[in-house]
Write a structure and sequence with these properties.
Blueprint lengths: L3 H15 L5 E2 L2 E2 H16 L13 H17 L11 E4 L5 E3 L2 E3 L4 H10 L2 E5 L14 E3 L1 H13 L6 H18 L5 H26 L3 E5 L5 H9 L3 E5 L29 E4 L17 E3 L3 H7 L8 E8 L5 H14 L4 E5 L8 H4 L1 H6 L5 E4 L6 H7 E6 L3 H8 L3 E5 L8 H5 L4 E3 L2 H7 L19 H9 L2
Parallel strand pairs: 3-6, 3-8, 6-7, 8-9, 9-10, 10-11, 12-13, 12-15, 13-14, 15-16, 16-17
Antiparallel strand pairs: 1-2, 4-5
Helix pairs in contact: 1-2, 2-7, 3-5, 5-7, 7-8, 10-16
């Protein structure tokens, strides 16, 4: 059976063979633009991962959202006005309710600090065509750029050179032979290059107008045009960690054989992490001096009310994810059927809330059991569920690490993607299981190695954060 490791190794080998990370195609480092998207395409076509369960927008939803999208492009246009800002923040599109308001949990702590003494602006992109945050003077929307990019793609095309065509064909052929699937890398490159061309031009124009000294971004591998535009103007780019970073996360992992002189185009200058644990110097293309453990303010704030709760000995929390939800829910249901003395809590991912009854019929039936509860909302705090549970079962969600902070005895299901947590397994912090029988055999016997919680999520270091800003 194919694994995430197999795909990553194939990518790394191709990058070494064809020097892909440094090949200019249509004037940009195009392999960077499609690296993650091609990875996801291959995982779907090889059925390593199932399809995400998140509900897609209907045609009606898209038409209905066009008017506010156009309106936002005018009223909240980041290009309006002639003024400078020292700092620009491109936050995470997905917002959650925190302290009674929607916000980006990964950059909210930074905004709070900057409000005191700094000149800054937040540039917010829509999530499922909506903006949920409360209107603020310091928030502008990227809808104008997104709309312009959409129109640009409709009226422009790309003619690849003969050399570019040969390179694309060679890479595509090798991947198709390796994984026995069909790919359309030409189409993928065309789409992403056109997006990049327009976005790079517009963001470079914006940065010249605002003249920032630094730019913060969440999810740099989804914002290459922003990173590239900033770097072209010698503006420092700092990424805020938003999730798990491992040797098999292609947004961050570049083994030495895939890079020249240690540098990767369109990679941020610095990364502010949740703690010391997250980045391996063997696969990181920037100096470890530029990997700065700043803390995870959201976890610190949200967990304080629950961190001292005594867990129930026989409560098992299952942490779902759309791509492995069908398999994980099957284990949860089977375990509940054979263990009436355990209380099972099945916490769905937000992307599964709308569709789980159709996609997981066994789970819908099990929700009627006396010892089984499905959580399909964000109103019940995840950290409260973790604090109340003695055990947690999941795959490779960042929530697994958060559960470890609550001393949850943790079982990782052996599904594609488990490689992300190889280090935790090797350290004996968690235990890998294959099926419900494996869980049954080990749930009362596994004794994890003691670990330092601050290793994963340290308290927010405001002094260090301020020094990063002031000395950037």
């Amino acid at each position: 059976m194919l694994s995430v490791r197999d795909i990553c190794d194939a990518f790394f080998n191709l990058e070494e063979k064809y020097n892909l990370n440094y090949q200019l195609i249509q004037g940009c480092y195009a392999w960077q633009l499609i690296r993650m998207h091609l990875y996801y395409d291959i995982t779907r076509k090889t059925q390593i991962f199932g399809a995400p369960q998140q509900k897609s927008l209907s045609l009606f939803d898209k038409i209905k959202s066009f008017t506010p999208f156009f309106k936002n492009s005018i009223i909240h246009n980041p290009f309006n006005g002639n003024y400078n800002k020292d700092i620009l923040i491109f936050d995470h599109p997905r917002k959650v309710i925190f302290e009674g308001e929607y916000c980006d949990i990964y950059s909210n702590f930074l905004v709070d600090l900057l409000k005191q003494d700094y000149s800054f602006e937040v540039l917010e992109s829509p999530y499922l065509n909506e903006h949920l945050t409360r209107k603020q003077k310091y928030i502008k929307y990227t809808d104008r750029v997104d709309l312009g990019s959409y129109i640009y793609k409709k009226f422009n095309k790309i003619e690849f050179t003969q050399h570019e065509k040969e390179l694309i064909l060679n890479v595509e052929s090798e991947l198709e032979r390796t994984f026995n699937i069909e790919l359309n890398i030409t189409w993928m490159l065309t789409t992403h290059i056109l997006n990049f061309q327009y976005d790079f031009k517009k963001y470079r124009q914006l940065f010249k107008k605002r003249n920032p000294k630094m730019i913060f971004v969440v999810v740099s591998y989804e914002n290459f045009a922003i990173v590239a535009a900033a770097k072209s103007l010698d503006i420092e780019v700092i990424e805020l960690q938003h999730g798990t970073i491992t040797d098999y996360h292609l947004g961050y992992s570049y083994p030495e054989k895939t890079r020249l002189n240690g540098e990767i185009p369109y990679f941020p200058d610095k990364i502010l992490t949740f703690g010391d644990y997250w980045i391996n110097e063997d696969t990181c293309p920037i100096s470890m001096d530029n990997i700065i453990p700043i803390g995870f303010s959201y976890f610190e704030s949200q967990s304080k009310d629950y961190i001292n709760i005594s867990p129930a000995d026989n409560q098992v929390l299952f942490i779902s994810q759309g791509v492995i939800g069908k398999y994980l829910s099957g284990i949860a249901v089977d375990f509940a059927k054979s263990h009436n003395d355990f209380k099972i809590i099945y916490k769905l991912h937000p992307g599964e809330y709308m569709t789980w009854r159709e996609n997981y019929p066994d789970l819908a039936e099990a929700s009627k059991f006396d010892n089984f509860e499905v959580i399909d909302n964000s109103e019940t705090p995840l950290y409260e569920l973790m604090a109340e549970s003695n055990y947690q079962v999941g795959a490779f969600s960042t929530a697994i690490y958060e559960g470890l902070m609550f001393n949850c005895i943790t079982f990782i299901v052996d599904v594609p993607g488990v490689e992300y947590l190889d280090d935790l397994i090797e350290r004996n912090y968690v235990f890998k299981i294959k099926d419900v029988e494996d869980l049954t055999d080990n749930i009362g016997n596994f004794k994890p190695t003691v670990y330092d919680k601050n290793f994963f999520f340290k308290s927010l270091d405001k002094k260090l954060l301020k020094s990063v800003i002031d000395n950037g």
